[in-house]
């Protein structure tokens, strides 16, 4: 697994797009619109949104491990430092200040 | 479009987790093996199977057991790829049911 | 045309009692073999492959990592290579990441969208991992889930829940229990339960009776 030259690097703050797109999407609803940070860059993978319809999955998309404070995702939360981490493709992420 | 019936992370109303486990039936082992074999032969991708499950109607999705959903999506994808037809499957199943006897 | 269950050693039901879809897989299999899409051998190979996979593989990895810190470093840096070192075939995993628990951090893994699981290492997931209740609750109430499995963590421990939404497969490396310094590797492996490698519990404190 190598770190490809994707748009984001570890530590960058990102917000998951708050969008409702048709088709096979691997960005869970609960994380859309939420702001977190890049934890790891996993590299480039074939796009499941395309593979799911028998297409070739190209161009590849950069996949990131994105971390979120639980307190920023849910109204109620238990542990104050708890996190939720989701594997998200670059085209679902916007840079945030 | 809205939230898919499979996209359930964080939805309220979930109860205690049933930790009991069941030994797999023959048909479940077979479903698992056919699924993996189709993947190994490059005939279908896991992404296609997931999409087929997501396209099921939500009541069917919730009512079926785990491997029943796999079998339904195997069938959907094989028909979509014109490898089998629904008629063929129905006919072969009818022949088997005669052999197996009526419930 | 045959429905010989020679390929399965599971729980036998009289076939006429099976549900609609359960019956259908026999017809589908028969047609696929008849048309040469799959062979019986293809199917049998998968049955055997799956049977060879169990949490024992993961327990072996973890126990070895506990006793050998250089191996642990290799396991974290390149999990597939470390598996190969131990004779565990992890080739089928696209990408594989180890999540190391510490006194102050615990990890838990779920696939909210379906049931992705490190099958090449651990075998099939337990029913509860695939259940709607686990998929719904794990991301929002991991501590509640852990309590159901017997693990109650104080607030100063950080809980990190991973939602396995892509091709990365996660394995939790549980904390080595206290007081196990003298244990053999084989004994240590007995403490490493499947559930501790998913992250809903810690490893067992003592060897089960």
Describe the protein.
The complex is a heterotrimer of chains A (97), B (103) and C (209). With 97 residues, chain A is mostly beta strands. Chain A has one domain (13-95): SH3 type barrels (Roll). In chain A, 8% of the residues lie in helices and 35% in strands. In chain A, strands 4-3-2-1-5 form a five-stranded antiparallel sheet. Chain A is globular. The mean pLDDT of chain A is 93. Chain B has a domain at 42-100. The longest helix of chain B has 15 residues, at 26-40. With 209 residues, chain C is α/β, with parallel strands linked by helices. Chain C has two domains: 14-51, no CATH class; 55-198, Nitrile Hydratase, Chain A (Alpha-Beta Complex), CATH 3.90.330. Chain C is built from eleven helices and four strands. The longest helix of chain C has 15 residues, at 20-34. β4 of chain A pairs parallel with β3 of chain C, so a sheet runs across the interface.
What is the CATH architecture term of chain A? Roll
CATH class placement of chain A: Mainly Beta
Strand content of chain B: under 5%
Shape of chain A: globular
Most extensive chain-chain interface = B-C, 63 and 63 residues
Q: Report the strand count of chain B.
A: 0
Enumerate how many helices of chain A there are, as a single number.
2
What portion of residues of chain A is helical?
under 10%
Give the SSE map.
The complex is a heterotrimer of chains A (97), B (103) and C (209).
Chain A: E1 13-16, E2 35-45, H1 48-51, E3 61-69, H2 70-73, E4 83-89, E5 93-95
Antiparallel strand pairs in A: 1-2, 1-5, 2-3, 3-4
Chain B: H1 26-40, H2 46-54, H3 58-63, H4 66-80, H5 86-100
Chain C: H1 20-34, H2 40-51, H3 55-67, H4 69-77, H5 79-85, E1 95-100, E2 105-110, H6 119-122, H7 127-130, H8 132-137, H9 142-148, E3 158-163, E4 168-173, H10 185-191, H11 194-198
Task: List key phrases describing it.
heterotrimer; B: about 100 residues; mainly alpha; C: about 210 residues; alpha/beta; Nitrile Hydratase, Chain A; 2 domains; two-stranded parallel sheet; 11 helices; 4 strands; disordered N terminus
């Amino acid at each position: 697994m190598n770190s490809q030259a994707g748009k984001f690097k570890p530590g960058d703050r990102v917000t998951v797009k708050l969008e409702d797109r048709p088709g096979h999407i691997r960005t869970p609803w609960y994380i859309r619109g939420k702001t977190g940070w890049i934890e790891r860059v996993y590299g480039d993978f074939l796009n499941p949104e395309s593979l799911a319809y028998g297409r070739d999955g190209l161009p590849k998309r950069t996949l990131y491990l994105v971390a979120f404070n639980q307190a920023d995702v849910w109204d109620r939360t238990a542990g104050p430092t708890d996190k939720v981490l989701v594997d998200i493709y670059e085209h679902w992420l916007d840079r945030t200040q | 479009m809205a939230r898919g019936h499979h996209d359930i992370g964080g939805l309220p109303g979930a109860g205690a987790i049933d930790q009991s486990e069941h030994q797999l039936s023959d048909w479940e082992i077979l479903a698992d093996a056919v699924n993996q074999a189709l993947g190994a032969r490059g005939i279908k991708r896991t992404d296609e199977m997931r999409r087929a499950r997501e396209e099921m109607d939500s009541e069917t999705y919730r009512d079926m057991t785990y491997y029943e959903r796999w079998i339904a999506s195997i069938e959907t994808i094989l028909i979509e790829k014109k490898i089998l037809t629904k008629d063929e499957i129905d006919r072969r199943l009818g022949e088997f049911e005669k052999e197996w006897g009526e419930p | 045309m045959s429905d010989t269950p020679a390929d399965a050693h599971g729980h036998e039901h009289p076939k006429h009692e099976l549900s609609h879809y359960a019956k259908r897989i026999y017809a589908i299999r028969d047609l696929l073999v008849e048309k040469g899409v799959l062979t019986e051998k293809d199917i049998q190979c998968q049955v055997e492959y799956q049977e060879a996979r169990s949490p024992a593989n993961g327990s072996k990895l973890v126990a070895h990592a506990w006793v050998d810190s250089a191996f642990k470093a290799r396991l974290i840096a390149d999990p597939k290579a470390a598996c190969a070192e131990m004779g565990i075939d992890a080739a089928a995993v696209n990408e594989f990441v180890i999540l190391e628990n510490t006194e102050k951090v615990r990890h838990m893994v779920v696939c909210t969208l379906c049931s992705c699981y490190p099958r090449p290492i651990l075998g099939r997931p337990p029913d509860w991992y695939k259940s709607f209740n686990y998929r719904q609750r794990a991301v929002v109430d991991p501590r509640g889930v852990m309590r159901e499995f017997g693990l109650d963590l104080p607030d100063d421990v950080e809980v990190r829940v991973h939602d396995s939404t892509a091709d990365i497969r996660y394995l939790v490396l549980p904390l080595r229990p206290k007081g196990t310094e003298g244990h053999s590797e084989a004994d240590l492996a007995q403490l490493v339960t499947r559930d501790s490698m998913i992250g809903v519990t810690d490893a067992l404190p003592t060897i089960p009776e």
